[in-house]
Amino acid sequence: MKLSSKLLIALSLVLFMNTKMWASYTPNSWDSMTSIPPFISGLQLSASFTIGNTIYICGGMNSSSNPTNGLYGYNTVTKTWSTLASFTSTARFSAVGFALNGEGYVGMGFGPYDIIAQGYTVYNDFKKYDPVTNTWSAVSALPLPSAIQGYTGDAIAFTISGKAYVGLGGNYDNQGVLPVGTTYLWSYDPNTNAWTQKQDFIGSARTQAVSFVINNKAYVGTGFNGNVGGLSDFFLYDPVLNQWAAVADTFPTGGTRLAKSFSICDYGYVGGGCSNNMYQYDPNNTPHWVLMDTLPITTSVTVSTATNVGGDTSYGYVMLGHPNCNTTLNTLVCKYSPPTMCVPAAPTVINNITQSDIAVYPNPVRDVLNISNSGQAVSYELSDMYGRIVVVSEMAANEHAISVENLAAGIYLLKINTSKGEAVVKLIEKR
C-alpha cells in the first residue's frame, strides 16, 4: 500500500464509524434520558468531574440541608449509576471538581453554617480520586493568602494543557444570605503537586460564575457580586500569556448567577441560572451568543459537563438542581446534542508534523496497528482514556506494527515522538 493511500488516518475512518448515528441524531436538542436514583436526586451543589465516559458526582447538600461526602458515577454509555468510594475528607457542598491525567480532583467548598461564628465552615484542601483503584489520596491544598482564605465556595475550575485552574471562590455575608466574591486565580500542576498564583481576574469580584474552554483559552463570566447583584460580562484568559481580556458581547439574559456551562468542539454553552434558556457561544462569528434549544427543566443545574461517548461524538449533560431556583428537584439526566455532530479529529498535529510524515492504520483497529513514517519517528506510547500507558516502544524502521489484540475495546491515544515534535492520534479499538 502506498503512503498516500494510508492517509486515511483517524478523521476519515471515524467519520465512517459515525454514519450509523445520523439516523437517530437530532441536532440542537435535549433528551431527558435517565432517572436519577432517589439517594442521589436529593443532592444539590455537588462537585463533578468527567473521566472517559463516566460523570462523577461528589458531595453536595442533601434534602435535609446537610453536607455529604458520597461519590457516584454515571456511565453515559450504559446509562447506569454506581456508588463509589466516599470522599475521604470532610463532607461539603459548593466544592469544585476537575479531571487531569485520568484522575479526578475535588476540593474547597463549604461545610455546615456556624451560628456562633455567623458563617459557613470553609475548606481549601483537595483530594485526588483514582477510578482504577476506587481510592482517594491527599494532594496539596490551595494556598490562599490569609485575607481571602475563607473564600472557597462556588468557585470556577477548568483545565488546559494538563493543568487545572481554580478561581473566583466566594463566601457569604454574616447573615449567610448574599454571596461575596473574589478575583483570584491559581493553577495546579499534577506533576509537581504544586499551586501557582496567576494574574487576578480583571472583572469585578464575583462568585457563582461559569467557565468553559475553547482552543486552549478559558472564557469566564456571569456570576454574582454582593454590591452589584447578578453579572453578565465575560472575559477571556490566555494561560500561555497569563493574561485576561474583556469579551465584547455580554451574556444575553442580563445578570445571571448559578448557571452552568460546558464546551463542545469550538463552542461554549451556558444555561440554567434559574432559567431554562441555553445559549451557544461562538468566538469566531457574530452574534457570538445564540439561543439554543431550551433546557427541559427550569432550574439552576448543579452539574454540567460534556463528554465523548464511545468515540463517536460529544454531548452535553446537566443534572440535579439548586434550592434557590425551584422547590421540585430535577430527577433526570438531561443529554444535549449540539447543532453539529462533533467528530473526533485526528491526528492532533504539533509543531511541524503533517500527514505526509506519519500514517496510522487501520483505525478502528482490531488486531494489529501499523505506523508508517518518513524516517523522523523515534518512539511511541499508547495510553487508554484513563491516561494509563499500555504500550511503549522505540521505532527503528519506517514501518512499525503494534499488536493490540489483547487490549480491551475502547478509545486509546497514540503519541508518536519524532524529530519534528509530537503527533497524537485518537484510536478506536474494536471488538
Tell me what the structure shows.
Helices cover 3% and strands 46% of the residues. With 431 residues, it is mainly beta. A hairpin with a 2-residue loop joins strand 18 (210-214) and strand 19 (217-221).
Structural key phrases:
mainly beta; 431 residues; 2 domains; 46% strand; Immunoglobulin-like; single chain; Neuraminidase; 3% helix; five-stranded antiparallel sheet; four-stranded antiparallel sheet
List the helices and strands and how they pair.
Elements: H1 10-18, E1 29-35, H2 38-41, E2 47-51, E3 54-61, E4 67-75, E5 80-84, E6 96-100, E7 103-107, E8 110-114, E9 119-122, E10 126-130, E11 135-139, E12 156-160, E13 163-167, E14 171-172, E15 179-180, E16 185-189, E17 194-197, E18 210-214, E19 217-221, E20 224-225, E21 229-230, E22 234-238, E23 243-246, E24 259-264, E25 267-272, E26 278-281, E27 289-291, E28 303-309, E29 313-319, E30 332-337, E31 348-349, E32 358-361, E33 368-373, E34 377-384, E35 389-394, E36 399-403, E37 410-418, E38 421-429
Antiparallel strand pairs: 1-30, 2-3, 3-4, 4-5, 6-7, 7-10, 8-9, 10-11, 12-13, 13-16, 14-15, 16-17, 18-19, 19-22, 20-21, 22-23, 24-25, 25-26, 26-27, 28-29, 29-30, 31-38, 32-33, 33-36, 34-35, 34-37, 37-38
